[in-house]
């Protein structure tokens, strides 16, 4: 008999959900928007797997609603701050995510943000669209060079390295801060204080954890050069947005390129950072290409099918077991 798997959306890029429904009995949230905790809890009893996105809370209550049959929670995301990992470990549930498949695509977007913020593409494009380009003037929209600049990567995993490779094409010097990553042929490891003081562009590539929440706050922003750009494609909570807003408004940092925010999605209630002329703001599209989003769903599905077949998960979260343990009460 096929095991039941809950997917938090019924429509996802690629053929992953089709494959999942061939190997399992698929129960998908049918709504157009994002399901609330009660919607998912109502569908959860008796499921063996949950396929969730990076912004769906997967907490102890959902795990308990599923009951002792639950073996695997597969995220179609690299980030995993939405999952209660302790609750999963206590219940012997494997938690997986989607590293590797999105690194290059997210690095592309990181570079787009670096270029857009340094060269003031948002403000320049908006003035053209408003019809206010009457004259070519030598002093309009002067930005700062990207080529030859020093790039400081905070977090030097797969995405950080993919950004470093691109940076060398721009003749940049690359330094990184990551307690788990020594020097390599692309980048030199430095302390956080040295990176903040030296980098022209500071780009964040760490997951959101208790250790990294508000890693960039008023103190770190004050340590950056006034000509520096802050870029984030990781998670909103890594940056103290109020402190960043103050720093950008007061010219204490040159600019920011942000794909992620503390409150997502924003609906009509926009973060004040969105309207800042020196901020390029995007709605969390780091991995948003057709091929990459389909690959993320595929990998999440493979993880579910493997665990349900008794095989080790392909990409368990760091610290998660790869094979489901005896569930509590199971
Ligand atoms: C990720 O993979 O973490 C992206 O931010 C999408 O959730």
From TrEMBL:
Transmembrane feature ranges: none
Keywords on record: Oxidoreductase
EC numbers: 1.1.1.-
Name of the featured protein: 2-hydroxyacid dehydrogenase
Taxon lineage: Bacteria, Bacillati, Actinomycetota, Actinomycetes, Kitasatosporales
Domain D-isomer specific 2-hydroxyacid dehydrogenase NAD-binding: 111-286
Domain D-isomer specific 2-hydroxyacid dehydrogenase catalytic as annotated: residue spans: 17-316
Protein source organism: Streptomyces hokutonensis
Top-level division of the source organism's lineage: Bacteria
